[in-house]
Amino acid sequence: MSKQYDFIVIGGGSAGYNAAQKALEFTKSVAVVDGADPLGGLCILRGCMPSKTLIYAAEILHHARHGDRFGLDIPRAEPDMKRVAARKREIIADFASYRQQGLKSGKFDLYRRHARFRDGKSVELDDGTVLHGKKFLVSTGSVVARPPVPGLARVPLWTSDDVLELDFVPESVIVLGGGIVACELAQYLRRIGSEVIQIQRSPRILKDFPEGAARVIETAFRDEGIELFTGTHIREIREIRESGNGVEVVFEHGGKEVTRRAAHGFNALGRIANTNTLNLEAAGVKTRDNGQVETGPHQQSSNPDIYAAGDCSGPYEIVHIAIQQGEVAAQHAFGREVSPVDYRLLLMVLFTDPQVALAGRSEAVLREAGEDVASASFPFDDHGKSILMEAKYGYVKVVASRKDGRILGAEIAGKDAGELIHALSTAIALNATAKDLLKAPWYHPTLSEIITYPLEDIVEALGV
User: Fold this and answer.
1) Residue 57 in contact with residue 72, Cβ under 8 Å?
2) Are 373 and 399 in contact (CB under 8 A)?
3) Which residue, 133, 232, 382, 432, is the most exposed by fewest CB within 10 angstroms?
4) What residues contact 49, with CB distance under 8 A and at least 6 apart?
């Protein structure tokens, strides 16, 4: 069996689904190929939504357990993990159902199969069906990475999928890694009651975030009782068998050999593009060392008829960017004029507590690009609303052009940073200045009000 389409999407997650929807504006000849069970994509099923559901539950538990800070006597606060897990499954089922209905709507043909390129114009499905396409979009997402760490391949370790499915409180967990997933779920595990040891190779966790923000999270983690090691080199990971199941990690730290044991190990050493089964070489599609498809401004690969979007192309593994990339690819594939994704408007959020949120470009990146900028920051521990909320970790920082005062970048490490950052990301998108933002009323006392302090400093520094 074979069939011809104008646009074939491989992978029905956020990038692929939205690209297919956009393509329907130009043709009815659209197919989506996705063999995952169930349908829905990483964000809905095993990423953003389940993790944030659990993280928020753990945050409520954490506040209940520390009610004494507010003069509250809360005698007992314990997680009922089976109910927590059941609530998460119910919520995610609703989200997934909505996406599945969209994929099965009949607006485009859906193939519940896995695909492999035969050449630059066709793919073969795992049931032998051949689909020919004028244009393709690869949006197959990412999978857990297993770097060449001694013992990693032979010792049974959890992945983020396993942590998100837990219906009990683990006695102890060694978390390998210091990226977004590692940090969010390490704190989650600690807050539900696990002893947590986190081991990171780099000199600090969150190496892709500003150093100041990473230091805030490190302090918060250690204050909460996470045993955090940075600047390490893992020598070996071993399975413990003589005294029951468990894991042992031997690593170098501070010039010494250190050994730590726990009941469970969690591989949070990152993710890689899910492209190695697609036979991209046969289609003339080049990939980077991490498996991501090399793409140009409009998401075209080295084969101009094949596009890529989302985690499998990078440069950022963020849902709203994946959606933008997919829509850009679909429009460009049908000859429409469309601007590439503007990464100067980058928006990122880390859902630890305190959160970290970034908008635009960092001061370091701007200065490296030759921009003449002014910056100012203000700490949460000197702000009224955050003090009364016992939310004293962190700071807000704003970076603006010295030439005209336009906001070019911002970073917030602090309570609800992911909500606060949108005031500044909107300003960046609209080319607003620090003075423009101060024209608006800022209610007192609110967390948002903290943003006005660095804005005022910038206006004063620029002599506006």
Assistant:
1) no
2) yes
3) 382
4) 43, 91, 92, 95
